[in-house]
Amino acid sequence: MSDNDQTGGLGGTFGSKTKGSQIAYGHPHAEEIINSAKKILKQSETGTLLLKVSDVHKIPINVIKGLGESGFSPQARIVYLQASGKTETADGALTLKLIKALRDADQELIGFTAPDPTKDLMEYAAVMHAKALDSIIYVCKVVKELTNSSVYKDLLDGLAELGHDAVYKA
Question: In DSSP terms, which residues pair with 62 in a beta bridge?
Answer without folding.
Answer: 80
